[in-house]
Amino acid sequence: MASDQTSFPVRRAAAARNRDRILTAARAAFADPAADISMAEIARRAGVGMATLYRNFPGRQELLEALYVDEVDALCAAAGAPDGQAPGAAFAAWLRRVFAFIPGKRLIVAELLEHSDDDRPAIQGQRARALAAGRPLLAAAQQAHEIRDDLTLEQIFDMIVAIAKIHGDSDYLEPMIQTMLDGLRLPTGST
């Protein structure tokens, strides 16, 4: 009986490792915009069997939702860890992370939207979660008079999304995102 009880936590740990391996493999697979990734390919890349894959994610939608939510979780966590930077710099660093987040999720989000019901919470509510996470950063930067206060975080997000939708490499997009970030800063000496 004791061996059954001690093996249960081991099985749970193995299941958690398998889930992480599946998500890691899927994240890497979906990062390639030219790839046509099947569930079998994800299982192969993760080094797990199909039964393990489907035990964790009954379908492709569930896997995509888990990937998306994990990425939003990381984005939200990053907002809570400003690394001792000045408020304006912390906010700008987080906005750069938001910008970097968007292009890598195009395939995932497009497929989720294509095959998703409107009431599925995986996409619905994620923008609100990210905005809620970023609000304290914006408020701190505005209170420190480092970021202008006539724009809402929703407006700033919409600018980032618009820039991220432009086709081009980082050399093409970087000056645009930098110009947007520069435009958020208050001119020196204005309070």
Automatic annotation (TrEMBL):
Q: Which residues form the HTH tetR-type domain?
A: 16-75
The record's GO molecular-function terms, alphabetically, read: DNA-binding transcription factor activity; transcription cis-regulatory region binding
Q: Which residues form a coiled coil?
A: none
* DNA-binding region(s), residue ranges: 38-57
Classification via InterPro entries:
Homeodomain-like_sf, HTH-type_TetR-like_transc_reg, HTH_TetR, Tet_transcr_reg_TetR-rel_C_sf, TetR_SbtR-like_C
Keyword tags: DNA-binding, Transcription, Transcription regulation
One Pfam family name is TetR_C_43
PROSITE patterns per the record? Answer: HTH_TETR_2 (PS50977)
- Protein name according to UniProt: TetR family transcriptional regulator
Provide the species name.
Answer: Actinoallomurus iriomotensis
